[in-house]
Fold:
Amino acid sequence: MSKILSQLLSRIKAVSITGATDKEISSIESDSRKITPGALFVAVPGVTVDGHKFIPDVVKAGATAVVCQTLPDVLDSDVTYIKVECCASALGFLASEWYDNPTDKLKLVGVTGTNGKTTIATLLYNMRVRHTPPPATLLYEMLRMMGYKTGLFSTVCNYVDGRAVPATQTTPDQLTLNRLMHEMVEEGCEYAFMEVSSHAADQHRIDGLRFRGAIFTNLTRDHLDYHKTVDAYMRAKKRFFDILPADAFALVNADDKAGQFMLQNTAAKKYTYSLRSQADFRCKIIESRLNGTLLNIDRHEVEVLFTGRFNAYNLLAVYGATRLLGFDEERTLVDMSRLVPVAGRFQTFESPRGYTAIVDYAHTPDALVNVLSTVRDVVGTRGKIITVVGAGGNRDRGKRPIMAKEASRLSDKLILTSDNPRFENPDDILNDMVEGLDADDRRRMLRIADRREAIRTAAQFAQKGYVVVIAGKGHENYQEICGVKHHFDDKEVVQEIFNEEKELQQ
Structure:
């Protein structure tokens, strides 16, 4: 595949162009190591490495054009130099043009927020109806269930309709995003749903895409190792809403104080959803159990296979987005009742000995509170909760003592363990978590760095009617230790324990 440079530059606001624009471009690259003769190189300033450093190297390798924010001191007469204000943003528009603007042919909906992105995006993906023109990990599920070919970008995995493409980032880079959406169009997909991370918005990975809708779930402390402040984190999320076109919808959680902030200055049509206040889409929890919930959504009762207030919010967001995409109300609610939880999101397992294990991805204080509060609401004061939780290494240290305190507050017994220590000493992470506990908390706490042993210990303590919550990793099937990913799956460990319990009963 090749394209003329002037065509690729049609959506780019260039500060200056030095050289001819009638050249044939053979590829677009932001990685200098991938340059081949005839390539266009985009010198993106990265978090650790600045692409401008490699401009002389890519010219030697045969690059015929360079997009940069600062022109090199020496210009090669055979190379066209395009100076722009932001290379990361330019890369998004270039990638979109290279792959024939796939989002002009897809109905793309993005989901952002601290919690709920994976669940909402996935469930929208799988809902499919064959008669009315439809609307979005819940959205994906909804549309596939309804009969539509659909794409998904998520933390867990990317999907081109039913074909899995392993995910390395919550939101892929600009070239990968557009390549996969081009493949979705080629596969006949009509819809695509995307988790939009704060990193992606801040790093302009979503620039050049045409969104038909955006959903905001909530905002709590997260990723401060990157954003440094909650305000900067919030503004990164808001940037997604700031770039929405006028024909898109913006659907936000009215019960989160950041919801209205997201809607400020957006050109999109504004909508809200709520469990507590007046909104365009409303929901009430009628009955909650560990294996499901009875909801009233817009005056219709619906039984769902999800538990907890946080999942009621997720499902309401899915309902609202689906309706805004044009789906029939009754059919939407029927299909919603058939949805199943995303792997590693409040996933329940029943022990042969009569206790329940719950595996959940909760890795922030707010997400952990959501999960544990849900369990406590169901089991009441008579039920016992054992929580196994850790915190990731080389990430926001400030949330570690908070997570430990919240886990202790809502649990009868707490076991602190490793998550993904990455390049940190696991004991140092546990020390940070213990700092959040008072004397009474510590009497009900164990620290076991080995995660497998921690889960096994929790199972040994558990009695009939107990609930063991294993938080932090959810769908992940690895532990990252000293930069190396080792296979580890909480769900597999639970199943091993249950198999052993079953054998002992025989």
